[in-house]
Description:
The structure is a single chain. Helices cover 34% and strands 17% of the residues. The radius of gyration is 17 Å and the shape is globular. Helix 1 links the parallel strand 1 (9-14) and strand 2. It has a single domain (9-184), classed as Rossmann fold, CATH 3.40.50. It is an alpha/beta fold.
Amino acid sequence: MTSAAKIPKILVIMGSIRENRNCKVISDWILEVARQTGHKLEFELVDLQTWELPNDELNLPSQHKYESEYTKKWSEYVDSANGFLMVSPQYNWGYPAALKNALDHLYQEWHNKPVLLVTYGGHGGSKCNAQLREVFQGLKMKNMQTSPQISISREQILNGVKESDPSFTEYKPVVEKAINELADSFEPSSGTN
């Protein structure tokens, strides 16, 4: 990317809307790691609690004929992004309904944009990770190869993850690697193999 190029805007979408969620602390930690990499990326934290998306739209998202003002605003906001970093817990071997609802409201707005997924849960959110990566593929997004899975303990699940939790240290290298891939996705290809 040349110095005159616009800095890519990355929406960091928190997948959980629960009141007592770990998603905010984990997302903040990932953002801290991302900023320490020194890449020229603009990160903007997105809390789905603040988006009052309806459960359904009258038309198919692929038609791009939105009825709800909330969906129209969501469409403009997502469309303004160059890429995404999604942070999601695993719920009952799957992903949160609020995140799926936010994704399913749109279609073309996600196309051909890079997406980095970080999941967390008792076993790193592996099932959620696999399922969401498939959803991203259906939305024609560009999945990053590295997709960190952060394991948290039962105590952390029940009582909350603390800011700057030392248990995250082991995940820093894989998160850095994933952020590097995301940043590289905005670089023009060199044309060499």
